[in-house]
Amino acid sequence: MKTIHSDVIQFRGSHYEFGRMQGKRIKDSITVKNRENQWKVRKPRFSISIEETKGAIKRFAPGIWEELIGLQESLEWPMERVLQEFGGYRVEYVKSGCSIMTGENYLIRNYDYHPKTYEGRYTFYQPTDGGYSIIGPSQRVTGRMDGMNEKGLALGYNFMHRKNPGDGFICCMIGRLILESCGDVTEAVEMLKEIPHRHSFSYVVYDRSGETFIVETSPRGVEVRQSNACTNHFEVMTHENRHHLVDSKRRLSVIQEQKAENAYDSFRLMNDTDKGVFSNLYGSWAGTIHTSAYFPKDMKAWFSLGGDREPAVFDFAKWLDGNDVDCEKIIGEVDTDIPFVHMDEGADWFQK
To answer: CB–CB of 211/165 below 8 Å?
Structure first.
Protein backbone atom coordinates (compact mmCIF):
# COMPACT_ATOMS: atom_id res chain seq x y z
CA MET A 1 0.00 0.00 0.00
CA LYS A 2 1.18 3.51 -0.82
CA THR A 3 0.40 6.48 1.45
CA ILE A 4 -0.72 9.53 -0.52
CA HIS A 5 -1.99 12.99 0.34
CA SER A 6 -3.83 16.00 -0.97
CA ASP A 7 -2.94 19.50 0.21
CA VAL A 8 -5.87 21.57 1.43
CA ILE A 9 -5.71 25.02 -0.17
CA GLN A 10 -7.91 27.87 1.07
CA PHE A 11 -8.04 31.29 -0.54
CA ARG A 12 -10.28 34.37 -0.55
CA GLY A 13 -9.52 37.16 -3.00
CA SER A 14 -9.48 38.08 -6.67
CA HIS A 15 -8.83 35.56 -9.41
CA TYR A 16 -5.57 37.31 -10.26
CA GLU A 17 -4.42 37.05 -6.64
CA PHE A 18 -5.49 33.40 -6.55
CA GLY A 19 -3.43 32.72 -9.66
CA ARG A 20 -0.35 34.44 -8.22
CA MET A 21 -0.62 32.46 -4.99
CA GLN A 22 -0.94 29.16 -6.82
CA GLY A 23 1.94 30.02 -9.14
CA LYS A 24 4.20 30.66 -6.17
CA ARG A 25 3.21 27.31 -4.63
CA ILE A 26 3.96 25.24 -7.70
CA LYS A 27 6.85 27.16 -9.29
CA ASP A 28 9.63 24.85 -8.10
CA SER A 29 7.40 21.92 -7.18
CA ILE A 30 7.94 18.28 -8.06
CA THR A 31 4.65 18.46 -9.98
CA VAL A 32 6.09 20.97 -12.45
CA LYS A 33 9.33 19.02 -12.80
CA ASN A 34 7.43 15.81 -13.52
CA ARG A 35 5.15 17.56 -15.99
CA GLU A 36 8.20 18.91 -17.85
CA ASN A 37 9.47 15.36 -18.24
CA GLN A 38 6.04 14.09 -19.27
CA TRP A 39 5.93 16.57 -22.16
CA LYS A 40 9.28 15.23 -23.41
CA VAL A 41 7.60 11.90 -24.14
CA ARG A 42 4.04 12.90 -24.97
CA LYS A 43 4.33 15.75 -27.41
CA PRO A 44 1.32 18.06 -27.61
CA ARG A 45 -1.06 17.09 -30.39
CA PHE A 46 -2.73 20.48 -30.46
CA SER A 47 -1.89 24.13 -31.08
CA ILE A 48 -2.15 27.06 -28.71
CA SER A 49 -3.77 30.32 -29.78
CA ILE A 50 -3.60 32.84 -26.94
CA GLU A 51 -6.33 35.07 -28.32
CA GLU A 52 -8.66 32.20 -29.20
CA THR A 53 -8.23 30.64 -25.76
CA LYS A 54 -8.69 34.00 -24.06
CA GLY A 55 -11.89 34.63 -25.96
CA ALA A 56 -13.26 31.15 -25.22
CA ILE A 57 -12.57 31.39 -21.48
CA LYS A 58 -13.82 34.97 -21.08
CA ARG A 59 -17.08 34.06 -22.81
CA PHE A 60 -18.01 31.67 -20.00
CA ALA A 61 -15.99 32.68 -16.90
CA PRO A 62 -13.83 35.80 -17.37
CA GLY A 63 -12.28 35.55 -13.91
CA ILE A 64 -10.42 32.39 -14.88
CA TRP A 65 -8.46 34.34 -17.49
CA GLU A 66 -7.29 36.67 -14.71
CA GLU A 67 -6.27 33.61 -12.71
CA LEU A 68 -4.14 32.45 -15.64
CA ILE A 69 -2.49 35.87 -15.83
CA GLY A 70 -1.64 35.61 -12.13
CA LEU A 71 -0.18 32.16 -12.69
CA GLN A 72 1.88 33.43 -15.61
CA GLU A 73 3.35 36.29 -13.57
CA SER A 74 4.33 34.08 -10.63
CA LEU A 75 5.73 31.28 -12.77
CA GLU A 76 7.47 33.69 -15.16
CA TRP A 77 6.56 31.45 -18.08
CA PRO A 78 5.49 32.38 -21.59
CA MET A 79 1.69 32.46 -21.77
CA GLU A 80 1.77 29.65 -24.35
CA ARG A 81 3.26 27.32 -21.75
CA VAL A 82 0.77 28.41 -19.09
CA LEU A 83 -2.10 27.66 -21.47
CA GLN A 84 -0.57 24.32 -22.47
CA GLU A 85 -0.50 23.27 -18.81
CA PHE A 86 -3.46 25.06 -17.27
CA GLY A 87 -5.62 26.65 -19.98
CA GLY A 88 -7.81 23.60 -20.48
CA TYR A 89 -8.49 24.37 -24.14
CA ARG A 90 -7.56 21.93 -26.96
CA VAL A 91 -5.62 19.59 -24.67
CA GLU A 92 -5.49 15.80 -25.07
CA TYR A 93 -7.06 13.53 -22.45
CA VAL A 94 -6.64 9.79 -22.20
CA LYS A 95 -8.87 7.01 -20.99
CA SER A 96 -10.17 6.80 -17.43
CA GLY A 97 -12.96 5.27 -15.39
CA CYS A 98 -15.17 7.04 -12.80
CA SER A 99 -18.59 6.28 -11.34
CA ILE A 100 -21.23 8.72 -10.06
CA MET A 101 -24.47 8.30 -8.15
CA THR A 102 -26.98 10.68 -6.62
CA GLY A 103 -29.66 10.26 -3.95
CA GLU A 104 -31.64 12.33 -1.49
CA ASN A 105 -29.47 15.44 -0.98
CA TYR A 106 -26.19 13.94 -2.19
CA LEU A 107 -23.92 13.38 -5.16
CA ILE A 108 -21.11 10.86 -4.72
CA ARG A 109 -18.41 10.06 -7.23
CA ASN A 110 -15.32 7.89 -7.58
CA TYR A 111 -12.50 9.52 -9.52
CA ASP A 112 -10.67 6.75 -11.37
CA TYR A 113 -7.51 7.71 -13.21
CA HIS A 114 -3.71 7.34 -13.35
CA PRO A 115 -1.46 8.36 -10.40
CA LYS A 116 0.99 10.15 -12.69
CA THR A 117 -1.72 12.72 -13.46
CA TYR A 118 -3.04 13.35 -9.94
CA GLU A 119 -1.89 16.67 -8.50
CA GLY A 120 -3.17 16.26 -4.93
CA ARG A 121 -4.91 19.61 -4.30
CA TYR A 122 -8.24 20.03 -2.52
CA THR A 123 -9.33 23.63 -2.85
CA PHE A 124 -11.62 26.14 -1.21
CA TYR A 125 -11.89 29.35 -3.21
CA GLN A 126 -14.04 32.42 -2.54
CA PRO A 127 -13.61 35.04 -5.29
CA THR A 128 -14.04 38.73 -4.52
CA ASP A 129 -14.30 39.84 -8.16
CA GLY A 130 -17.19 37.77 -9.49
CA GLY A 131 -18.00 34.10 -9.93
CA TYR A 132 -19.20 31.57 -7.37
CA SER A 133 -17.18 30.13 -4.50
CA ILE A 134 -16.21 26.48 -5.04
CA ILE A 135 -15.09 23.52 -2.94
CA GLY A 136 -13.49 20.46 -4.51
CA PRO A 137 -10.31 18.82 -5.85
CA SER A 138 -8.48 20.60 -8.65
CA GLN A 139 -6.95 19.22 -11.83
CA ARG A 140 -4.38 21.12 -13.90
CA VAL A 141 -4.55 23.78 -11.12
CA THR A 142 -7.34 25.83 -12.72
CA GLY A 143 -9.70 22.92 -13.47
CA ARG A 144 -12.08 21.02 -11.18
CA MET A 145 -12.67 17.28 -11.57
CA ASP A 146 -15.71 17.51 -9.26
CA GLY A 147 -17.03 20.04 -6.80
CA MET A 148 -19.86 22.13 -5.39
CA ASN A 149 -20.41 25.88 -5.47
CA GLU A 150 -21.97 28.32 -3.03
CA LYS A 151 -25.39 27.95 -4.68
CA GLY A 152 -25.44 24.21 -3.97
CA LEU A 153 -24.73 23.09 -7.53
CA ALA A 154 -22.66 19.87 -7.52
CA LEU A 155 -20.90 18.35 -10.53
CA GLY A 156 -18.84 15.37 -11.59
CA TYR A 157 -17.91 13.91 -14.97
CA ASN A 158 -17.25 10.51 -16.54
CA PHE A 159 -14.98 9.76 -19.48
CA MET A 160 -16.47 8.18 -22.60
CA HIS A 161 -13.79 8.29 -25.32
CA ARG A 162 -11.32 10.56 -27.09
CA LYS A 163 -11.99 9.56 -30.69
CA ASN A 164 -12.09 12.39 -33.22
CA PRO A 165 -11.41 15.28 -30.83
CA GLY A 166 -12.60 18.78 -31.66
CA ASP A 167 -11.50 22.31 -30.80
CA GLY A 168 -12.74 22.98 -27.30
CA PHE A 169 -12.32 22.67 -23.55
CA ILE A 170 -11.21 19.55 -21.70
CA CYS A 171 -13.30 18.05 -18.91
CA CYS A 172 -11.66 19.59 -15.84
CA MET A 173 -11.86 23.13 -17.26
CA ILE A 174 -15.50 22.52 -18.20
CA GLY A 175 -16.11 21.47 -14.59
CA ARG A 176 -14.60 24.74 -13.41
CA LEU A 177 -16.54 26.86 -15.92
CA ILE A 178 -19.84 25.33 -14.83
CA LEU A 179 -19.21 25.64 -11.09
CA GLU A 180 -17.83 29.16 -11.48
CA SER A 181 -20.75 30.51 -13.49
CA CYS A 182 -23.92 28.41 -12.99
CA GLY A 183 -26.29 28.63 -10.05
CA ASP A 184 -28.43 25.54 -10.65
CA VAL A 185 -28.87 22.51 -12.87
CA THR A 186 -30.89 24.42 -15.47
CA GLU A 187 -28.09 26.93 -16.02
CA ALA A 188 -25.51 24.13 -16.01
CA VAL A 189 -27.34 22.15 -18.69
CA GLU A 190 -27.68 25.22 -20.88
CA MET A 191 -23.98 26.08 -20.58
CA LEU A 192 -22.98 22.49 -21.35
CA LYS A 193 -24.94 22.84 -24.59
CA GLU A 194 -22.99 26.00 -25.48
CA ILE A 195 -19.46 25.04 -24.42
CA PRO A 196 -17.18 23.64 -27.17
CA HIS A 197 -16.15 20.12 -26.12
CA ARG A 198 -12.72 18.71 -26.90
CA HIS A 199 -13.62 15.10 -26.04
CA SER A 200 -16.61 12.91 -25.18
CA PHE A 201 -17.75 12.94 -21.55
CA SER A 202 -20.90 12.73 -19.47
CA TYR A 203 -21.38 15.54 -16.96
CA VAL A 204 -23.62 14.84 -13.96
CA VAL A 205 -25.15 17.93 -12.31
CA TYR A 206 -27.24 17.99 -9.16
CA ASP A 207 -28.59 20.78 -6.94
CA ARG A 208 -30.93 21.57 -4.04
CA SER A 209 -33.98 20.81 -6.18
CA GLY A 210 -33.06 17.14 -5.97
CA GLU A 211 -33.03 16.75 -9.75
CA THR A 212 -30.13 15.04 -11.47
CA PHE A 213 -29.28 15.68 -15.10
CA ILE A 214 -26.72 13.68 -17.07
CA VAL A 215 -25.44 15.64 -20.04
CA GLU A 216 -23.83 13.46 -22.71
CA THR A 217 -21.34 15.56 -24.68
CA SER A 218 -18.99 15.14 -27.62
CA PRO A 219 -17.49 17.51 -30.21
CA ARG A 220 -20.39 16.45 -32.42
CA GLY A 221 -23.40 16.86 -30.17
CA VAL A 222 -25.02 17.12 -26.73
CA GLU A 223 -27.91 15.10 -25.27
CA VAL A 224 -29.59 15.45 -21.88
CA ARG A 225 -31.23 12.74 -19.78
CA GLN A 226 -32.18 12.11 -16.16
CA SER A 227 -30.88 9.26 -14.01
CA ASN A 228 -29.30 8.76 -10.60
CA ALA A 229 -26.26 6.79 -11.82
CA CYS A 230 -23.62 7.15 -14.51
CA THR A 231 -20.46 5.28 -15.44
CA ASN A 232 -18.49 5.27 -18.71
CA HIS A 233 -20.95 4.80 -21.53
CA PHE A 234 -23.64 6.91 -23.18
CA GLU A 235 -27.27 5.85 -22.94
CA VAL A 236 -28.56 8.24 -25.65
CA MET A 237 -25.60 8.85 -27.97
CA THR A 238 -24.84 5.13 -28.18
CA HIS A 239 -23.17 5.58 -31.57
CA GLU A 240 -20.40 7.45 -29.73
CA ASN A 241 -19.64 4.60 -27.31
CA ARG A 242 -16.43 2.62 -27.13
CA HIS A 243 -16.58 -1.07 -28.00
CA HIS A 244 -15.51 -2.36 -24.58
CA LEU A 245 -18.30 -1.49 -22.15
CA VAL A 246 -18.49 -4.61 -19.98
CA ASP A 247 -16.94 -3.08 -16.85
CA SER A 248 -18.82 0.21 -17.25
CA LYS A 249 -22.16 -1.60 -17.49
CA ARG A 250 -21.22 -3.89 -14.59
CA ARG A 251 -20.47 -0.94 -12.29
CA LEU A 252 -23.68 0.77 -13.36
CA SER A 253 -25.68 -2.34 -12.46
CA VAL A 254 -24.03 -2.53 -9.04
CA ILE A 255 -24.98 1.08 -8.31
CA GLN A 256 -28.52 0.75 -9.62
CA GLU A 257 -29.16 -2.44 -7.65
CA GLN A 258 -27.85 -1.13 -4.34
CA LYS A 259 -30.30 -0.76 -1.46
CA ALA A 260 -28.51 1.97 0.47
CA GLU A 261 -30.80 3.76 2.92
CA ASN A 262 -28.72 6.90 3.33
CA ALA A 263 -25.74 8.86 2.04
CA TYR A 264 -23.24 7.06 4.26
CA ASP A 265 -24.29 3.66 2.93
CA SER A 266 -23.96 5.00 -0.61
CA PHE A 267 -20.51 6.34 0.21
CA ARG A 268 -19.51 2.90 1.47
CA LEU A 269 -20.83 1.32 -1.74
CA MET A 270 -18.52 3.57 -3.77
CA ASN A 271 -15.48 3.58 -1.47
CA ASP A 272 -15.29 0.08 -0.01
CA THR A 273 -12.97 -2.09 -2.06
CA ASP A 274 -15.18 -5.18 -1.85
CA LYS A 275 -18.47 -3.69 -3.11
CA GLY A 276 -17.76 -3.88 -6.86
CA VAL A 277 -17.46 -0.19 -7.78
CA PHE A 278 -14.05 0.80 -6.39
CA SER A 279 -11.20 -0.07 -8.79
CA ASN A 280 -7.53 -0.95 -8.26
CA LEU A 281 -6.65 -0.76 -11.98
CA TYR A 282 -4.19 2.13 -11.57
CA GLY A 283 -1.84 0.92 -14.28
CA SER A 284 -4.76 0.84 -16.74
CA TRP A 285 -5.69 4.50 -16.08
CA ALA A 286 -8.78 3.40 -14.16
CA GLY A 287 -7.86 3.06 -10.47
CA THR A 288 -9.98 4.88 -7.88
CA ILE A 289 -7.90 7.68 -6.40
CA HIS A 290 -10.57 9.58 -4.49
CA THR A 291 -14.22 9.43 -3.49
CA SER A 292 -16.09 12.74 -3.16
CA ALA A 293 -19.55 13.46 -1.77
CA TYR A 294 -21.49 16.73 -1.91
CA PHE A 295 -24.60 17.72 0.04
CA PRO A 296 -26.27 20.78 -1.55
CA LYS A 297 -28.88 21.41 1.16
CA ASP A 298 -26.45 21.03 4.05
CA MET A 299 -23.57 22.65 2.16
CA LYS A 300 -21.16 20.00 3.33
CA ALA A 301 -18.59 17.90 1.46
CA TRP A 302 -16.90 14.56 2.17
CA PHE A 303 -13.61 13.44 0.68
CA SER A 304 -11.38 10.39 0.97
CA LEU A 305 -8.21 9.22 -0.76
CA GLY A 306 -8.05 5.52 -1.51
CA GLY A 307 -10.52 2.84 -0.46
CA ASP A 308 -12.05 1.63 2.81
CA ARG A 309 -11.64 5.10 4.31
CA GLU A 310 -13.79 7.27 6.54
CA PRO A 311 -14.28 10.59 4.75
CA ALA A 312 -12.89 13.94 5.81
CA VAL A 313 -15.95 16.14 6.43
CA PHE A 314 -15.94 19.82 5.46
CA ASP A 315 -18.63 22.37 6.37
CA PHE A 316 -18.63 24.61 3.30
CA ALA A 317 -21.32 26.88 4.74
CA LYS A 318 -19.12 27.73 7.73
CA TRP A 319 -16.15 28.25 5.46
CA LEU A 320 -18.16 30.69 3.33
CA ASP A 321 -18.88 32.62 6.53
CA GLY A 322 -15.14 33.10 7.07
CA ASN A 323 -14.21 30.10 9.20
CA ASP A 324 -11.18 28.37 7.71
CA VAL A 325 -10.84 24.60 8.10
CA ASP A 326 -7.99 23.44 10.32
CA CYS A 327 -6.94 20.60 8.00
CA GLU A 328 -3.76 21.08 5.96
CA LYS A 329 -3.52 17.64 4.34
CA ILE A 330 -5.86 14.76 3.60
CA ILE A 331 -4.12 11.38 3.92
CA GLY A 332 -5.03 8.07 2.30
CA GLU A 333 -3.66 4.80 0.92
CA VAL A 334 -3.85 3.17 -2.49
CA ASP A 335 -2.78 -0.28 -3.60
CA THR A 336 -0.15 0.66 -6.18
CA ASP A 337 3.55 1.42 -6.45
CA ILE A 338 3.06 3.81 -9.40
CA PRO A 339 4.51 7.26 -8.55
CA PHE A 340 2.16 10.23 -8.07
CA VAL A 341 3.00 13.40 -9.96
CA HIS A 342 2.78 15.68 -6.88
CA MET A 343 4.77 13.41 -4.55
CA ASP A 344 7.33 11.23 -6.31
CA GLU A 345 10.27 11.67 -8.62
CA GLY A 346 9.97 9.72 -11.84
CA ALA A 347 6.25 10.31 -12.35
CA ASP A 348 6.85 10.67 -16.07
CA TRP A 349 6.21 8.51 -19.14
CA PHE A 350 9.77 7.24 -19.60
CA GLN A 351 8.75 4.18 -17.62
CA LYS A 352 5.46 2.60 -16.58
So the answer is: no
Amino acid at 197: H
Pairing of strands 121-127, 2-13: parallel
Rounded distance, CA 19 to CA 72, Å? 8
Q: Is 198 helix (H, G, I), strand (E, B) or coil?
A: coil
3-state helix vs strand vs coil in the chain, percent to 5:
30, 30, 40
- N- to C-terminal Cα distance for the chain? 18
What predicted TM-score, i.e. pTM, was given to this entire model?
0.94
Q: What is the mean pLDDT of residues 292-319?
A: 98
Check whether 46 has a pLDDT greater than 60: no
Q: 2-10+89-334, superfamily in CATH?
A: Penicillin V Acylase; Chain A (3.60.60.10)
pLDDT of residue 94: 52
Q: Which string of DSSP letters, residue by residue, matches 72-136?
A: HHHHT--HHHHHHHHT-BS--------EEEEETTEEEEEEEE-GGG---EEEEEEESSSS--EEE
39-53, 220-234, 315-329, range with the lowest pLDDT: 39-53
Report pLDDT for 226. 97
